[in-house]
Amino acid sequence: MPELSAAALHEALRDLAADPARHPLLVALDFDGTLAPLQDDPSASRVLPDGVVALDRLMGAGVRLALVSGRGLSTLAQLAQVPVGTVLIGSHGAERARVLPFGLDRAVAPLTSEQADLLAQASAQLSGVSRGRNGVWVEAKPTAAVVHTRLAQPEVGEQALTEARTVGRRLGVHVLEGKDVVELSVLDADKGEALTALRDELGVRTVLYAGDDLTDEDALVTLGPGDLGIKVGAGATAATYRVDDPPALVAALGVLAEALGAPADGAR
Ligand SMILES: [Mg+2]
């Protein structure tokens, strides 16, 4: 079935807001490419200004909020301007925290010595993969090593990603694929498991999930018929709805906030 457009999505959001039997509601969102336009420099990513407002309004209307990102939790917490009470899920579910008025309430998943050793090997071997390749770099996360190729020539990037996958298979770690990214994780985390755990914990009746990348499909396939899955941008998806880009996603969040009767100036 082809996905439904933004207009159909807005209608579905108004229906959702109007039906008390479907509340409480969890709005869980990817960060990069979903709330924040993709940047060549990943440290420059920010939630769109209208998104900051929409998230505040949703929180004010009693919606549970979560960001579900592949980023390490510390980086995600630095970059994401989200209301107090938002749950941050980092490293595809391997890290988690709740945003407090001053800082984070963080749940730490310590690595076993075997996992720490695997992580050190993965990092060292990915450094080998990036060496001498322009535009290829390795990111160290608490539970994973990641090779990025967004700034590399396409053929250089492809070679690096292929080698990174081989390293992952050889070490027997979890290989996660994204746009111009291969991540080798020593924890078996994915966005789908993280989302399912969070929805059970919060006891919500409905989940809205939006994301732009392959790893978001892990979350989108967990959604049930009463939930709302939104794919941001092009590419195959399990989502029912599709919007073109982060501004269109943020506009949809604004429609939901409005339909829930959230005050226009937020209620943080
Ligand atoms: Mg993304």
Structure notes:
With 268 residues, this protein is an alpha/beta fold. It folds into 2 domains: 6-109 and 189-259, HAD superfamily/HAD-like (Rossmann fold); 113-185, Trehalose-6-phosphate phosphatase related protein, domain 2 (Alpha-Beta Plaits, 2-Layer Sandwich). Helix content is 38%, strand content 22%. The chain has 8 helices and 12 strands. α1 (6-18) packs parallel to α8 and α4 packs antiparallel against α5. The N and C termini lie far apart (39 Å). The mean pLDDT is 93.
Which H/E pattern describes the elements? HEHEHEEEHEEHEEHEHEEH
Largest sheet: 8 strands, mixed
Radius of gyration: 19 Å
Put simply, the count of helices is: 8
The counted number of beta strands is 12
Helix/strand-derived category reads: alpha/beta
Small molecules bound in the structure, each named once: magnesium ion
The domain tally reads 2
Uncertain residue ranges: none
Q: Helicity range of the residues? A: 25-40%
Strand order of the largest sheet: 5-4-3-2-1-10-11-12
Shape: globular
Gap from first CA to last CA: 39 Å
CATH topology of the largest domain: Rossmann fold
Instruction: Supply the CATH architecture of the largest domain.
Output: 3-Layer(aba) Sandwich
Under CATH at level 1, the class of the largest domain stands as: Alpha Beta
Average pLDDT reading: 93
| CATH fourth-tier homologous superfamily of the largest domain | HAD superfamily/HAD-like
Strand content: 15-25%
